[in-house]
Every structure is written in C-alpha cells, then in structure tokens.
Design brief:
- The chain is α/β, with parallel strands linked by helices.
- Helices cover about 50% and strands about 15% of the residues.
- It has 3 domains: about 50 residues, 434 Repressor (Amino-terminal Domain) (Orthogonal Bundle); about 110 residues, Response regulator (Rossmann fold); about 130 residues, Response regulator (Rossmann fold, 3-Layer(aba) Sandwich), CATH 3.40.50.2300.
- Helix 2 crosses helix 3.
- It is elongated, with a radius of gyration of 24 Å.
C-alpha cells in the first residue's frame, strides 16, 4: 500500500503527480489566471485522480479568502427556484468556489438574519439570495451587511444587484406566438400575484394583447400548482370564446390541459395552450406542451459573476 493510499492526499501529492510545484497547485486551486491551460488541466486531473480536497480553513488563513459563497433560499419544491439553486451551486463550483446553502421554511427577518450570521461565520465572500415572494424579497433587501449580496428573482427593476430572466419579454413572446396563430381571445392563468415573476408574466401578456389592439380578458388566478391550473382550465373550458391559454408556469398549463381534455376541448385543435419554464415533463404530456424556456444555467453563471465582480 502506498503512502498516499494510507492517508488523505495533500497538496504535495497533487504537485508530485502533476509534475509541478505545490505553489502552482495552490495557484490553480485559488483561481489564478496566469497558469498555462495545459498546466491547469494537468493539476485538475491530478486532483480528481487523487480525490484531493483542499482545506478551506487553511486557505482562508493563508489567503484571507474562504473561496466560499453562501446561498439563502426558501425551502421550495417549485421548478424555478430549485433549478436556480442547482445552477448557482454548479456555477460556483465552476468558478472555483465552494457553496454553503441555508434553506429557510419561510423568509422572516429573524430567520434571514440568522442565516446571514451563520454564513458570515463561515467567512463567505458573498451571498446569493433566491427569493421570488414579495415578503422574502423585502426581507433580503432590507438587510445591510458588509457581505456582497445578489438577489435572484423575477423583478429586475427593484434592486441594483439582481439577476433573472426578463419575464415580461418571455410572456410577450408566448402571447405573440398565440396571436400569430390567429387567436384573439387569449386567457391567462396567473401565478400568485405576491410573486414578482407572476406579476411580470401577467404584465407581459397584457402588454402584448394591448399592443395587438385587443382587450385582455380578466385573468384567472392560480398558485403555481397543477391543481390550480386544472381548476382554472375547467373555468375556461366553459367559455367557448376562449381559444388560447397562456399559463404562467408549466405545472398550471399541464393542469389546464387535463381540464380541457375532460371538458371535450381538443388541444391544439380547439384551444392552444402555452406554459412557461420548460419543465422536463413538458415534452411528454399529450399533446407536448409549448412553453417558454428559461436559461437557468445562464442565471446561475450571471449570479456568480456579479458576486465575484464586487
């Protein structure tokens, strides 16, 4: 048995395997840009082969940097927030950072402050806050701290350091698609309107209808769930004037698809349906769901880039 197999590998083991100095290994780990690409690749391969894990505490003592980014999010099973959480984690790792996450059952001021205090004790270099609900956003924005913050949410106008997709533009594209198909009575199933994304998507639908010279009908309220989309779909199916539906997310759109089917309204022959998010299941429902795709990977990369540019 070799010496390295009997203990956890250290930086000198990586240096020996890669044929470089331990200073070079340290510079690769700490994200130095002056390393030649072939050298960096050799060091990274040695790290992977040995299963080397840098000592974060030691790195922080030596460099004054923890190379750790904090993430604060509400505990959610919704596709959008969970996708953003995943891509921020991935983007942090790709940028050479560890990620430490705190999930809150609800975003209260006390809970948020406790989460920030916890992450501050870890000496995180910045914090990404994933929050779309108004109350959560207000709590996040009200916190003044020396640690840089980036807020990932749907309203890009209410905070300086905010990352997200243009939900208004996405909703306008969805509505324009339906208008181009010849529809004039386009119903909208909203998300809960205390969410920035829901308001922005509703605004985009309304603006595109008005731009086309049409009077938007009264939207139907949903709560992001397939069940609320199903109930909204039953309501809309009874109105034969409605020939198209834009739902603020795919779960509600899928619920509406079932309701329309049960009511004998064929999709897309009688009613066209468009969702928002592009969930993995969208292509497997009958018929496959037309939807607006969010580039969650790009959101994650932009959040980390904004945080590291401070």
């Amino acid at each position: 048995m070799t010496d390295t197999a009997a203990r956890a590998p250290v930086m000198q083991d990586v240096a020996r395997l890669a044929g470089v100095s331990h200073q070079t290994v340290s510079r690769v780990i700490n994200g130095a840009t002056s390393i030649r690409p072939e050298t960096r690749e050799r060091v990274l391969q040695a790290i992977e082969r040995l299963g080397y894990r840098p000592n974060t505490a030691a790195r922080a003592l030596v460099s004054g940097r923890s190379a750790t980014i904090g993430i604060i999010a509400t505990a959610s099973t919704l596709f959008g927030p969970t996708s953003v959480h995943r891509t921020v984690n991935v983007a942090a790792r790709e940028a050479g950072f560890f990620a430490s996450s705190v999930s809150l059952s609800e975003m209260t001021r006390e809970g948020f402050d406790a989460a920030v205090d916890h992450l501050d004790r870890l000496a995180v270099e910045g914090i990404v806050v994933i929050a779309g609900h108004d109350e959560a956003l207000e709590v996040a924005r009200s916190r003044s701290a020396h640690t840089p913050f980036v807020i990932v949410e749907g309203d890009l106008t209410r905070a300086r350091r905010t990352v997200g997709v243009d939900n208004v533009a996405g909703a306008r594209l969805a509505t324009r698609h339906l208008l181009d198909l010849g529809h004039t009575e386009i119903a909208h199933i909203t998300g809960p309107l205390d969410w920035a994304e829901a308001r922005a998507r509703s605004e985009g639908w309304r603006a595109e209808m008005v731009s086309a010279g049409l009077r938007p009908m009264e939207p139907v309220a949903g709560d992001w769930s397939a069940g609320s989309g199903y109930r909204a779909g039953l309501h809309l199916a009874a109105d034969e004037a409605v020939t198209a539906v834009f739902a603020a997310n795919d779960q509600m759109a899928i619920g509406a698809l079932r309701a329309l089917h049960e009511a004998g309204r064929r999709v897309p022959e009688d009613v066209s349906v468009v969702g928002f998010d592009d969930v993995p299941e969208a292509e497997y429902v009958i018929p496959p769901l037309t939807t607006v795709r969010q580039d969650f990977e790009q959101i994650g990369r932009e959040a980390i880039a904004m945080l590291t540019q401070v």
